[in-house]
Amino acid sequence: MMVYIIIAVGIMLAVLALTLMAISKGYDYKHSIDPMPDNENKSEDEKDHTG
């Protein structure tokens, strides 16, 4: 019976370790954004409304 408890605790620790590694990897992810478009890329409608 003690063997089953040790195996269960080992599995729980392995799942906990994998969960913490996945969370850490998610927080380390570097997000990137696209640059702002130039004024030349605006459509004619937007140019008319801005003056």
List descriptors:
51 residues; mainly alpha; 0% strand; rod-shaped; transmembrane; transmembrane helix
Question: Would you kindly provide a written description of the structure presented here, covering whatever features stand out?
Answer:
The chain crosses the membrane at residues 6-23. This is YtzI protein. Keywords: Membrane, Transmembrane, Transmembrane helix. It comes from Virgibacillus litoralis. The radius of gyration is 27 Å and the shape is rod-shaped. By secondary structure, it is an all-alpha fold. It has helices at residues 2-28, 44-50. The termini are far apart. The chain has two helices and no strands. The protein is 67% helix and 0% strand.
Quick gist of this model?
It contains two helices and no strands.
Topology as a string of helices (H) and strands (E): HH
Total DSSP E strands: 0
Shape: rod-shaped
Radius of gyration computed on alpha carbons: 27 Å
Proportion in β-strands: under 5%
Give the number of helices: 2
Overall mean pLDDT: 84
Q: What kind of sheet is the major sheet? A: none
Q: Which stretches are poorly predicted, pLDDT < 50 over at least 5 residues?
A: none
Structural class: mainly alpha
Beginning-to-end CA distance, first to last residue: 81 Å
User: Share of helix among residues?
Assistant: 55-70%
